[in-house]
Amino acid sequence: MLKTSNIRNFCIIAHVDHGKTTLSDRILELTKTVEHRNMQDQLLDSMDLERERGITIKSHPVSMVYTPKGNAKEEYAFNLIDTPGHVDFSYEVSRSLAACEGALLLIDAAQGIEAQTVANAHLATEQGLEVIPVINKVDLPSADIPAIQAQLEEVLAIPADEAILTSGKSGIGITELMDAIVQKVPSPRWVESEGLRMLIFDCIYDTYKGVICYVRVFSGTVKTNDSIVTMSNGMRSQTKEVGKFSPKMTAQTELNAGDVGYIVTNIKDVSEIKLGDTITLHSNPSKEMLPGFKEVSPMVFSGIYPIDTNDYNKLKAGMGKLRLNDAAFVYQSENSVALGFGFRCGFLGLLHMEIIQERIRREYNLDVISTYPSVVYLVKKTDGAEIEVHNPVHLPETSDIEYIEEPMILASIHIPSGSIGDTLALVSEKRGICEQTETIDSQRVMLVCLIPLNEILVDFNDRLKSITHGYGSMDYEVSGYQQAKLCRLDIKVNNEAVDAFSSIVHVDKAEGRGRALCKRLKEILPRQLFKIAIQAGVGSQIVARETISAFRKDVTAKCYGGDISRKRKLLEKQKEGKKRMKNIGNVSIPQDAFIKILKTSDS
Question: Is the pTM of this model over 0.90?
Answer without folding.
Answer: no
